[in-house]
Amino acid sequence: MASISPSLARKITSPPVADAAYPGGTKVNGLGVEDMFKQIMEVVQKSNAEIAELRQECSDLRHANNNLERQIREGLTPGHHNGSRGAITPGFMTPAPGSPNLRAKSPFLSPGAVPALAMPPSIHIPSPLGDHTSYPFGPIREIPGFYVVIPAGGAGTRLWPLSREGHPKFLLDVTLQGRSLIQSTWDRLLPLTTPSRTTIVAGAPHMKAISEQLPDLLPHNLFCEPGPKDSMAAIGLAAAILARRDPNAVIGSFAADHMISGDDAFLSAVSEAVQVAKKDYVVTIGIAPSHPSTAFGYIRLGEKLDIEDAPNARIVQSFKEKPDARTAKAYINTGNYRWNAGMFVVKASFLLKLLKTYKPELEEGLQKVAAAWDDETLRAKVLSEVWPALEKIPIDNAVAEPAAAEGRVAVVPATFGWDDVGDFSSLADLLPAEANQSRVLGDHHLVLTEQVAGGIVVPGSGRLVALLGVDDLIVVDLPDTVMITTRARSQEVKRLVKKVKDAGWKALI
């Protein structure tokens, strides 16, 4: 119920007084009891009407704001400028050396031609520090002694049912450009290293698909983990194996399922990070935030480091967990925070040294596995004994955060575009569409809309999907499953996956 005004409250709480003109009863400040309650109800009804009107205005403003944001995103074109945010440049363009460039009508990389789709422009945000310097590349970008580690895991819950446990999002071509996310990650990093120094850590169910998508990946560089133990065990395993192969190895860990635009800026940041890592730092790459996101962790920038060939490197003052909206906005306003994209560059031996300090049992277990790795029979035996007992913990909590408290973590603030494709809402932003129309991931001829704005449709069953008068919907139509939600609730799809599993539909997970 709406609140009563202070003046009326005072009238109600005033003691009743006798009134000769009102025989047989009392009046309150000259009002009869019936009149008093009638006046109260009038005030309440008026307040309720005002609240309903305010709610409608808020709803209209939210709708208008959503439309404005869509128009801004869809209206940006290469070569234009957007105030202080810098030039808009085409993004998500990665070379495709080595592996075959598959074409497909669906994100599953099935054979067949697909119409060429122009990617939306990516916003390159200049450093708020105002003094960002590009790394001075020579004619050859390869960095001797630099090893790439690509952890390829995940249960595929937030892009379900498009992504499944047996076919997670890193195996999908989510922009229909002919390359899956893991293929694009491989392509992007290859200029800095070689196939012989590019490694992948993945689970047994995905080994075959990864080998098929990356034929240039050497078999002894595909590390199979018996079960998911989070990022510290995966990256630590690769570090322990590579440190035995090359005691001076500098490793860079980059997720298999992220998208990046602005390859030169990305390669420049990684090259700087390698130079800093050689000085015994754990180095992360900080992403310039484009909005006050509550979906990412943040890095607080500290003082500059005086390191040759790393003009932008700074000490990490602290890591911040995913904030609420108000805190995220405050972070952005200071200009001293970056998104934490989970990219780490470090000497393999130094990472193991820190791990031994902060998590000695985990480090000991990984060293035992690495010592037996080259003997397949012994490896299987040691893995069965050691792996189940390893602590399941992210690298951020195991090493990065405690090391940052001791001044051992650095950050290279970068300016490339980045997206972790964390849900269908972010996926929708990566796909082209006519103004105020739904994005389509698949065959456009299978989708018909009328008075529909925003959202994304995945027509994967071969059936026609028709939408009328619904905005910002997520519709995933596959042969065995149909999933429908709103764009605003796309982060919650993983809750639906749990219900599907609990209901006995485990074959669909």
Automatic annotation (TrEMBL):
Coiled-coil spans are 37-71
Could you list this entry's UniProt keywords, alphabetically sorted. Coiled coil, Nucleotidyltransferase, Transferase
Q: Which residues cross the membrane?
A: none
* Protein name per UniProt: Mannose-1-phosphate guanylyltransferase
Pfam families cross-referenced by the UniProt entry: ManC_GMP_beta-helix (PF22640), NTP_transferase (PF00483)
InterPro entries tied to this protein? GMPP_N (IPR049577), ManC/GMP-like_b-helix (IPR054566), Mannose-6P_isomerase_type2 (IPR051161), NTP_transferase_dom (IPR005835), Nucleotide-diphossugar_trans (IPR029044)
Nucleotidyl transferase domain span? 149-432
Segments of this protein annotated with the region Disordered: 74-100
Q: Which GO terms describe its biological process?
A: GDP-mannose biosynthetic process
Per the database record, which ranges form the MannoseP isomerase/GMP-like beta-helix domain?
Answer: 455-499
Any one GO molecular-function label of the UniProt entry: mannose-1-phosphate guanylyltransferase (GTP) activity
